[in-house]
Structures are given as C-alpha cells and as structure tokens.
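hiii so um. not sure if this is the right channel but i have a protein structure encoded as tokens and i wanna go backwards to a sequence. like what aa goes where. can anyone help
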C-alpha cells in the first residue's frame, strides 16, 4: 500500500472511451497538494477504442494528516489517427492512503566511561496498523561518542511486535 508522508506506488487502469485509436500513448500523473510523482510518464503504447491499459507511478505523499481516499489527477498524451499530438482532459482518480507503520522506541545504556567501549540497546515497537518490512534503526552522530555501529536490522515488525538492536559506542 501507499502510506501518508512516504513514497510509494500508485497503479492506475485506464480505458480508451473514445472512437479513435490513441497511438504512442503516455500517461502522466500530475503533481498536486497530496501527490509528488517521481515517475515522469508511463508509456502505455497503442490503445484501441474500448481497450484498457495499466500504468504504475512512483510518487511521494505530502500534506496528508490522516488515512483516507485522496484525489489524484492524470492526463494522457498521444498521437491521434492523423499523427497529430493530442492530450486528454485531466481525469481524476481516488487513491487510498493508509496510516502505515508507526513506532515507539526506548533505549537503555550500559555504563559508559571515558576511553572505553559501551553499548546502547534500542527497542522498537510497531504501534501502527500495518507491518513494517525490513525495518532498521539508525544511530545518528552523538557527541562526545564515536559510533562503532550505525545501523541495526530489526526485520519485519507486525503491529504490536517489538525488536531490539544494540549499538556499540566509544566514549
């Protein structure tokens, strides 16, 4: 699925409802308040009257405060039967945006002394309504410590599940 304030894929099915063939057709997702397309256009080739095609766009999601259905605009660019460049009117579709994974985390440190190596254990809980696949915890620079490890893999966290990873630090 596609989640609020994240990047994801939007798949669209379109149909040529006109009476002419659309040649060398390319569908574009138009930027809007909620969608920032990362894909410029998707070629759908030749569309005969009544024929359908599918296009998938990579897009960023912005300005979405809660899960729900949001309008996305599309336009088809094509060559008509006389070889002239043409474009459709803007068409609007509805895209479902989910909450996605949400997290709570806690950290515990071992005693850290100057000129010694210690560790911080970070526990992450998925408090959202969706699984988080390939979840990772990243440790940012933290003065006066030197990071000996910067990333911990947590795997897949289903809603309500927790995982713990440990980062080594030098004081």
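sure thing!! here u go:
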């Amino acid at each position: 699925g596609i989640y609020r304030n994240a990047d994801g894929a939007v798949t669209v099915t379109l149909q040529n409802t006109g009476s002419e063939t659309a040649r060398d057709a390319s569908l574009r997702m138009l930027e809007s308040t909620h969608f920032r397309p990362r894909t410029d256009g998707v070629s759908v080739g030749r569309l005969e009257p009544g024929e359908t095609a599918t296009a998938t766009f990579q897009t960023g999601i912005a300005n979405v405060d809660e899960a729900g259905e949001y309008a996305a605009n599309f336009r088809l660019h094509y060559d008509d039967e006389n070889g002239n460049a043409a474009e459709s009117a803007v068409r609007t579709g509805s895209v479902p945006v989910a909450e996605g994974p949400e997290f709570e985390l806690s950290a515990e440190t071992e005693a850290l002394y100057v000129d010694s190596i210690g560790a911080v254990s970070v526990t992450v809980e998925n408090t959202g309504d969706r699984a988080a696949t390939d979840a990772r915890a990243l440790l940012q620079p933290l003065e006066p410590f030197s990071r000996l490890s910067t990333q911990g893999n947590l795997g897949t966290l289903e809603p309500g599940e927790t995982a713990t990873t440990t980062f080594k630090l030098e004081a």
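oh and The chain is about 0% helix and 60% strand.
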